[in-house]
């Protein structure tokens, strides 16, 4: 759910990072765990990863600390990368062992996943993995399909590392830019809500989803 939870980032997360001081080690640890769990789990897509990155980036921007910005980007990139690696194997195991359970089947055998799996273009792996990191409605399918369709683990990790770093840099930087403007929290929330509405409309329209899917499959 890309950015559709921006305006509803859990309050305790906001309170955790809403400080005029530098982030503590415990804060970095909690943020790492949030993104790791969101990435590594099949049923953890409810965690608003994109919203967390942008929100954290906003507070880092308010701190005006470039070192903190770099550190946050690295922490989130590593969390995403490690989570992808875990999901490559763990997700495949869960799919094999419990794939017939309705709630799991909904995620691992949806019409969307089957459409991609049956028609996937073997030369589009990098595009699929990179865009998949930015598009939550296919994000959880990336490591599952990589394993299912035979993409070797090491090449997958290389592409995942690039995608994770790019995702972290882009999302945190968006928040950093907004936070660096030193606008009031009310205006900041308003901007994020507008962004959320725009992306919700785009990603929920079947026409646009289908256009995205066409990028990964054989014509």
UniProtKB/TrEMBL annotation:
<keyword id="KW-1133">Transmembrane helix</keyword>
<dbReference type="InterPro" id="IPR032816">
    <property type="entry name" value="VTT_dom"/>
</dbReference>
<feature type="transmembrane region" description="Helical">
    <location>
        <begin position="183"/>
        <end position="203"/>
    </location>
</feature>
<keyword id="KW-0812">Transmembrane</keyword>
<feature type="transmembrane region" description="Helical">
    <location>
        <begin position="28"/>
        <end position="54"/>
    </location>
</feature>
<protein>
    <submittedName>
        <fullName>DedA family protein</fullName>
    </submittedName>
</protein>
<comment type="similarity">
    <text>Belongs to the DedA family.</text>
</comment>
<keyword id="KW-0472">Membrane</keyword>
<dbReference type="InterPro" id="IPR032818">
    <property type="entry name" value="DedA-like"/>
</dbReference>
<keyword id="KW-1003">Cell membrane</keyword>
<feature type="transmembrane region" description="Helical">
    <location>
        <begin position="125"/>
        <end position="145"/>
    </location>
</feature>
<dbReference type="GO" id="GO:0005886">
    <property type="term" value="C:plasma membrane"/>
</dbReference>
<feature type="transmembrane region" description="Helical">
    <location>
        <begin position="157"/>
        <end position="177"/>
    </location>
</feature>
<feature type="transmembrane region" description="Helical">
    <location>
        <begin position="66"/>
        <end position="90"/>
    </location>
</feature>
<feature type="domain" description="VTT">
    <location>
        <begin position="47"/>
        <end position="176"/>
    </location>
</feature>
<dbReference type="Pfam" id="PF09335">
    <property type="entry name" value="VTT_dom"/>
</dbReference>
């Amino acid at each position: 759910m890309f950015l559709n939870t921006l305006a509803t980032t859990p309050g305790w997360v906001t309170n955790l990072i809403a400080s005029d001081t530098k982030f503590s080690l415990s804060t970095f640890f909690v943020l790492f765990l949030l993104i790791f769990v969101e990435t590594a789990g099949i049923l953890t897509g409810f965690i608003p990863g994109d919203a967390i990155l942008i929100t954290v980036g906003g507070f880092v921007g308010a701190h005006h600390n470039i070192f903190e910005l770099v550190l946050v980007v690295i922490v989130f990139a590593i969390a995403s990368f490690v989570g992808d690696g875990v999901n490559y194997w763990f997700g495949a195991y869960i799919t094999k062992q419990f794939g017939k359970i309705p709630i799991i089947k909904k995620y691992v055998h949806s019409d969307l996943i089957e459409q991609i799996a049956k028609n996937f273009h073997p030369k589009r792996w990098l595009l699929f993995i990179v865009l998949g990191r930015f598009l939550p409605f296919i994000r959880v399918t990336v490591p599952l399909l990589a394993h299912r369709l035979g993409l070797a683990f090491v090449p997958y990790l290389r592409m995942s590392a690039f995608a994770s770093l790019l995702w972290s840099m882009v999302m945190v930087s968006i928040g950093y830019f907004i936070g660096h403007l030193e606008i009031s929290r009310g205006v900041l929330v308003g901007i994020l809500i507008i962004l959320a509405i725009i992306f919700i409309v785009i990603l929920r329209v079947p026409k646009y989803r289908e256009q995205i899917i066409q990028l990964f499959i054989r014509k």
